[in-house]
Amino acid sequence: MRAAAIAVLFFWMSSQALAFEELPINFMYCSDTSEKADCKKNVQRMEDDNKRAWKGDYAGQRNVAYCLSSGCGGLVIQNKALGCAWRIVIIGSGSPKVDAGDISNIKYECGRLDAAEASAAKAQAATIYRTVFKRELPAVAW
Predict the structure, then answer these.
(1) Does the reported pTM lie above 0.85?
(2) Domains contained in the chain, number
């Protein structure tokens, strides 16, 4: 019975519309762990990274992109298109911190999307970039 209740709750949470800046945290992540304090710190760290990402912070953006693409071990509800969108934003930012790892990440993360997901990622990237940097996203190829 407990598993069925968790499944219903998870489905409901994943179907709820999030504000654009909200990270899709998996709130069931800490429910079955004996190390709740460490778990809650991980959630808080991810929420802090997300806030920093939306303020233009390079490291925050990389962490958010990684977790959206990978799920971060179940901490975040995986969204590969949105992870790719953040990779596009990172490359388009022109940050002097952008390096070969970022180039490799965008090729891998965005390269594995199908055409519809890639289209969504490009549109999401344009919106994120405009929100964060208050200008239009430059052309970014992968």
Answers:
(1) no
(2) 1
